[in-house]
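SEVERITY: medium
COMPONENT: batch folding queue
REPORTER: lab tech (J.R.)

DESCRIPTION
The queue accepted two submissions in a row. Attaching both inputs and their returned structure tokens so the on-call engineer can compare them side by side.

ATTACHMENT 1
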Amino acid sequence: MKNFFTNSQNSIVTSDRILYTPSPFARNSLLYLQEAGSLRANRAHTSRRANLDSYLFFAVVSGAGTLLYNDISYPLHQDDCVFINCEIPYAHSADQDDLWCLKWIHFNGPTLPAIYDKYKARGGKPVFRPSDIKLFLSLHADLFATASSSDYIRDMKINGELSALLTLLMSESWNPEESGSKKQRRDLLPVKMYLDENYTKKILLDDLAEKFYINKYYLVKQFKAQYGLSINAYLLEVRITRAKQMLRFTDKSVENIGLDCGLGALTYFSRTFKKVEGMSPSEFRVRWSEKNCYSEVF
């Protein structure tokens, strides 16, 4: 269900917006749209909101203004973008001398709180300057068109477009270092390649730091900054992935696979695997076995 409005709000702004009511299925299971639109400020003003169960993305198409969020004031200019949790009080103000045009999306979903926490953990900021704002504006146009349509799978399409928006936001969130240039930060690709090639071995942080002549505390911090995972988490990901490959495509025993993947003896391997995959290695092998898959030739 949607409603489309074009209004001037007593000449403060001129806006086109769509208010969208998602289906119960979308509200409970998908990313869903609440409102989207565009506005042009006709005079300087400030809009304030608080305790709104929503997440807001907007792009400054032209002009300038200010965002007040978490008691911090952020200047906004053309091509800047905003991504915030609207439960936290916020206000945005159009600049008196350079009135702005905005395109915005209010949206929500059962997974969004965790996604937003991940966005922040990666270094995502309330205000950022994207590498290509056209990608965001194109998504806004697609979303507005989908929400305005009568497509019977509209909620699924909106979910996909909001997922694409979040993917773009995540790609812009990677700000692990606020000081220093990239040239001043050591490239840890050789360390990652070493882990990829030696995951079967017992790898200690002290030994790794000594091998690559890196302070271990710097190594821990920079590896997570560059790859988004701690060294231990990355090693576990590599080992579990290799274990799944061997469980599916070899006849090796579960016990030998655990040892071959650097995940230790059977008890520890089974416990670790189940923690990650939600099932034991033996259950994974049975469910994903090629014997449980068949093909028909016509």
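ATTACHMENT 2
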Amino acid sequence: MMDNLRLICLSVFLVAWTLSGACQQMPEKPNIVLIYVDDLGYGDLGSYGAVQITTPHLDRLAEQGVRFTNGYSTSATCTPSRYALMTGTYPWRRQGTGILPGDAALIVPQDKATIATVLRDAGYKTGVIGKWHLGLGESVDKNWNSAIKPGPLEVGFDYSFIFPATADRVPTVFIENHQVVGLEDDDPIHVSYTEKIGNEPTGRENPELLKMSSSPNHGHDNTIINGIGRIGFMEGGQKARWVDEELSLTFLSKAKIFIEENKSDPFFLFFALTEPHVPRMPATMFKGQSKLGYRGDAIKQMDWTVGEIIGELEKLKLDDNTVVIFTSDNGPVLDDGYVDGAVEQLNGHKPAGALRGGKYSIFEAGTRMPWIVWGKGVEKNKVSEALISQVDLLASLAELVDSVRPKEARDSKAMSKVLLGTADEGREYVIQHAGTLAIRKGDWKYIAPSSGRAYNKLTDIELGNLPEDQLYNLSEDPGETRNLANQYPEIVRELKSLMEKEKND
């Protein structure tokens, strides 16, 4: 009897010891927060050299984490960059991935892996909050007054609280999961991008009703909502329409709720802020804070919002087990459709830093982004020169959580150690995309010939399109002022060959 009791006790002890050892060998998966902002320039943060504006919360993350100097979006505009981030493939490989109108159909494939499905399959609760701009539904013609799908929930997210496209495009409503928030049955929404619908005033016909003037010829002169002319026409949904000043605060509130509700499980939050994209109409407490017009005020609001997210993680004691990634979808633009003080009150601020171009441009300022990583396992106060692209986030996060990069994410490179700052060898080369394609390898950048415009007068941005080869040494000439193509034809041939290989792959 005693021998049997000893045997049982010994067995219980061994099982407990084995389970304890197994638990110790299984590291806790880190939460992941991807903060993706809109139209922020390489020179817009203090940690990247800005002196006319202060960004203390993001500067703190840079001091306590890794700041990349060669981190890229794939494209110089928003929709294609977001497509690459979601799918792990370059957007120029597929037609229909350009800047989408507000009524576009979903362009993210539902039958292929996304960054959200990879993490969900790895045991994560997944959520997207903020700007979407990847289309909704099966077609342009959709009923905004019933379930709107497919959308984020059909491509890997467990929870979604978004606006459909950009803040300057209709419909100006929040969509939670599949439903417009606050919509009333007797006031249905109708949207058109081809003709005026309804009797609501427009910026073109009633400029006296605008509280923010539209820039001429930009197209922001259709239906007036909250005193701001939009792109596209909308009627109905009066009580469902958001107010621009509340956008960021609403998204922040929803993000905090998502973090709180999922604090006991590993979670992935794709937090897509609208700042500093137009129309820039920050909350009242931020107006005038930057002395750089509403664009500067929007950057101050963005920085504060990031600080609030970090504060929430710290309050819930999640900061020791969370990786936060901060970057932007494309480069800066000042006048992108509204007269908001961004040009007149620039006051010596350089949104692109020492780089040339901006949003829409194949020059560096179009795609070289502020990029900061902070949190669990991340090196502290490190400046990384590793070459990395946002298309790599899918494979890198899969590697971080011990998952496998799906084969269809063909352009995504697994570089989790580079992301955390524990390794320095990034990509061999990266493809950049605007009106044409460019390739960067080491210090050299080659831009393919293009018949497109060299300069956008409306935005006052050099687009970088020329009918001949362009070659720049970025270490000696970060402003891309000296075309060396004729002096180094062998380098032109090498980079052109690499680019053609990618295009034909």
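NOTES FROM REPORTER
Residues 147 and 277 are 28 Å apart (CA to CA).
No errors were logged for either attachment.
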